Amino acid sequence: MGSKSIKKRLITGDKEQLADFVARNPDNARAKLLEQFDDLLIEVCMENYGANQTRLAKILGVNRGSMRKRMKNLGYIQEIQQ
To answer: For the DNA binding HTH domain, which residue ranges apply (predicted)?
Structure first.
């Protein structure tokens, strides 16, 4: 099950699917869920405000370095290899 599907379930409030997710992740369900929700927040903010890291960081209440790291992990920023 991909992260996109759990994100949709969070939004639609499918409690059975959410319970299934928790059952399959008994040791770290909260952390995984919050991480996926955080990713969704970043995606939504980027759609609405663009990819300016400083602006997104301010909107989401994190520092720019953390924002950059999350964006890189999500594939929005790629390292330039020399």
So the answer is: 34-72
80, containing H or E segment: none
Residue 73: how many other CB atoms lie within 10 Å: 12
pLDDT of residue 54: 96
**21 CB contacts (<8 Å, ≥6 apart)?**
1, 6, 9, 29, 32, 33
The number of residues making up the chain comes to 82
Determine the pLDDT at residue 72: 93
User: How far lies 14's CA from each of 2, 9, 10, 35, 48, in Å?
Assistant: 16, 5, 7, 18, 26
